[in-house]
# Entry
Amino acid sequence: MTIAQHISIRPADGRPLFNDVGARRLFTRKVVTVGAPFEPIAWGAGDTHAHVATMGEDRAAAAELARRLESSLTHVLKLSDGFAPAKVKAVSDQYHLLATLPYIVRQAQRHGVRCDPFHEGSSLPDMVGLRHLAPDLPGRLRRLAPRFDPRRFLGALGPCPALDDADAWAEATAAVLGCAIEGRGPLVAAARRAVVALAPEASTASLCSALKCRPRTLRRLRADAPLPPMLRDAIVAQACWRSSTRAQLVDVAA
# Structure
C-alpha cells in the first residue's frame, strides 16, 4: 500500500542553493505554483538539497513534479549543470508518513541552516495558517494525516509588535504573503495595505522606509478597503511567532 510519495532533489554539482531567505522563499513559491496539480502536502529545503511530499500512489506523477520543479529552479537560479536525478520513495502507511512529515519540514534545523528560523523554505507556516501561499494545505493534511499536529514545531507565540513598529509589521506581512515589499503588482499593493492597517501609529517616514514607497502612496493605501479578517489574523499570528522565536534565539546566543 502507498499513501504518499517522498521526493528528494539536489543540484548536480552539490552546491548550497538554499542558504538565504530569498532563495528559500523562491523554493517555496515554486513548490506551490509548479506543484499545484500534484497536491503537495509538505516541503522543506536543507542547504544543498530539498524534499517534497505529495499525496497518492502515483509515482510517475511525483517524478513529473520533480522534473518540473528542477527545470523551473534550474532556469531561475541559472544552474549550468542542473539537478542530479531526483529520488522518489513511496510512503507506505500512516506510521511512515508521521515520520516523514517532521523530517521534511525540519530540514533547516537538521542541516544547521541558520538563516531560516521562520521556515521560509518549508511548508510549516502554511500548515498552521501563518502563510497564505497554500490555503488548501491544512485540509489536505487533515484528510491524509489526521494525527499529525504541525503546531508542536512552532512554540509559543510572543507579544505583538507595537502599533508604531512599521518594520516588524512589514516583515511579518512579507512572510505571510511570501513576497518582498518592493516594486509593483497586486501582491505588493496588498502587502503595503496590510502594513498601513496594522501599524496605525507608525510615522509617515517609518512607513515609507519599511514599504519603500512615497507619502502620496500612503495616502492612497489608507483610503483602500479594510483588511480581510483571515489575512489580518495570519499576519498578527506571524508577527507574534517571530517575536517569540527571535527572543529564543537571543537567549540561546547569550
